[in-house]
Amino acid sequence: MTDGHLVRQTLAGDRSAYEELVRRWSARILAFCHAKVGTSHAAEDLAQEALLRGYRGLPTLSNPEQFGSWLHGIALRTCLDWLKRKENGQVGFGAIGATQEGVPAPDDLPLDRLARDEQLRTLLAEVEALPDECREVIMLYYYQDVTYQQIADALGVSAATVNARLTKARKLLRQRMTRFEMRSDGLPASFE
Amino acid sequence: MDCQQVLSEVERLVDGELPAAERAALEAHLAECEGCRAARDAARLDDAALLRAFLPRRRAAAALADRVVAELRREQGQAPIEPALRHRWRSWAVPLVAAAAGFLLAVLVLRPPFGRWLPFGQQANAPSRAALPLGRLAVATGPTEMRTAPTIPWTVCPPSGEIEAGAAVRTADFTRCEIEANNGAQLRLDAGTVIELPTPGCVRLSQGELYSAIPGGSVFKCEAQGAVVEVEQGKFDVSCSPGSVSLTVIEGSATLECKSGTRQVAAGERVRLADGHIEETAAVANPLQDTSWINELLVLKGPDNPELAERLNDILAQLGQAKLSYLYEDEIRRLGSRAALPLLRYAASPRSRTKQTSRAAAVRIAADLADSSVVGDLIGLLDDGDPQVRVDAARALERLTGVNQGRPSDAWREDLDACRPTVESWRTWWHAHQANHGRSSGGTGR
Q1: A34: chain B residues, CB-CB within 8 Å
Q2: Are B420 and B405 a contacting pair, CB within 8 Å?
Q3: Minimum Cα–Cα distance from A104: chain B residue
Q4: CB proximity A46 to B under 8 Å
Q5: What is the pTM of this model?
Q6: Is B390's pLDDT higher than 90?
Q7: What does each C-alpha distance from B272 to B275, B339, B358, B438 come to in angstroms?
Q8: Paired residues of B362 in beta bridges
């Protein structure tokens, strides 16, 4: 069922159709917000706000098939508002500082796993530190299983551009790791 | 293709973005070039590391969706989704999966060669033929005893042995049985149950649990600790322990008479009595699962009985529903073809009747994941009222069978009446080819 179908069903009173849209788009919107504001904690709040704003503003959507790009527009405005408030000192310190909480660090794990998780946290931090365009495509690509074309549609660029930005992002990540060797099980040996 | 070209495309290859022709050319080069293979392997490892690093973020995205859905429901005054529910599903879905697997296993493995239990050892004293037979012992998982009067000793009832009016029947702590009454009623006794059958239309439960299926035609009465349940047609379950009686109506409705008065109990309701008074009334979310103890008897009746198929389909439908409710689409897709059958049975079950969105999603995902074992289920959806369901089912059928009976998948959007001749073509085709498509025996192919 297309996004357009679901939008029309929502507008006809079937709220469960919007729930389907939420499940379909939440990862991409969260990735987008994370890329825009650079912190995952704040991104979750902002993505939630954007998805709820989307529901309330649905009657204003003129082309239901364009739901995805319309929702990204809402997410963008939500993030820009937040960044502006942050610049003006209106955002709490906790929301700004939380950047590397992605991989939980339980205190009862064996040391090698802790080390591995630490490496993965470092990698995620490096992703957050990438230039905007690179960070955006990496996050959109790895938050959910999507194609280049789906990312391209969300960003309003071509699939070739997405490919080029992903390649550049991965190259930068390799350069930023002093050692980017991988273990045989597909996990990084070190991300110092 | 030279090394430079290959290296520039390695990431697209790893990301699965290369068209088939380019992929073949690139892989041909990789087969010959160790250096490029090393670059490809490095790209794969980078990709795996990033996927791993993003795993918690993916979980956060799933939790975010739950929160937003809960917020939407809260705003509209509906019951919110409990945040922990998504994670909790495993705690019941795993037993559910186990139940389904165990049930299937029982059907396939435990079915006795002769369909019914044969008593080991004594064939016992056949009941007296003097009284009017009320029914017979249809199946039992072990020894079932009967006596015709309180002063007569209990004797083991043989398979298919007649049960007389006025008799009492009891099951041992490890035995379940079914009595088939001459009026068509089915009485199933759980382990450790004692009943009396004073007349053909009445049963008295003094301990244990009794499941009754009443075909209609006359009122059937069940008495337990002074409470009386009357049913004209339907299925209900009564369990009885000292001081407590519980009535669950599975199909139809029942009239309950007790110290609290008389009241109707509808399908899906459970009433609990304490000392003859109504103590609690509750909705039963899953009556088939709540009475799963009868599954053992259904298995003994053979794999072809429709009640067994109904329960099996419902278990599969629940699995499909659980997948849609608690997993995200990409997670379901990662389960591969094994997810297709539960999703299709969910789409075909009454559980999805009022849930058009999730039903359509189930068929859409199943259409992508299906293998040839569910062809019968897919054909069963071709006359569905939802055009998108028909399109998705037809798309999968064309992919799996290589034929479309002259109607491309998009053409299934047309009016259902226009599609019907092709539905018939598919059914004819199915009758001719069914044997080539593994399982799917539960699929209707209607």
Answers
A1: 57
A2: no
A3: B56
A4: no
A5: 0.45
A6: yes
A7: 10, 38, 34, 45
A8: none
